[in-house]
Amino acid sequence: MKKYNETSQDGHVCLECGDELGYGRADRKFCSDACRNRFHNRHVQSSRQFKQKVNLALDRNYDILDSIRKTSLKSIEVADLENMGFRKDYFTSYVKRSTKELYMCYDIKYAIFHGRVTSISKMETF
């Protein structure tokens, strides 16, 4: 019979600290509540940071598109937008129609045609 402080469990180790798991349930993954909490907090934090990065890029794109929409510009080069901080790989929806690619950044729609952003307009909200 094993004592409580003996380690074995067929070489299973804690997913957080790497210590061998002692006596307990066979499906145990962590040596303590502290290790379990650290492990899960770290994974949630990386997911949260990814979401924050995407949302910041979308917000920046929205602000850039909205400022251009308010001017008299009919179209602008994608390269010029990128120089302003626009990230063309971040958008909220996409539709391809014949030769035009239509994008949405929240309620602002725009088209990309031959390296130019055109038809920047705001959708009506209900």
Describe this entry's structure for a reader.
- There is one protein chain.
- This protein is α+β, with helices and mostly antiparallel strands.
- The protein folds into 2 domains: 1-31, no CATH class; 33-122, no CATH class.
- 34% of the residues lie in helices and 21% in strands.
- The protein has helices at 33-69, 78-83, and strands at 75-77, 93-97, 100-105, 108-113, 116-122.
- It has a 5-stranded antiparallel β-sheet with strand order 1-5-4-3-2.
- A hairpin with a 2-residue loop joins strand 2 and strand 3 (100-105).
- The longest helix is centred in the middle third of the chain and has 37 residues, at 33-69.
- The radius of gyration is 26 Å and the shape is rod-shaped.
- It starts with 32 loop residues before the first helix and ends with a strand.
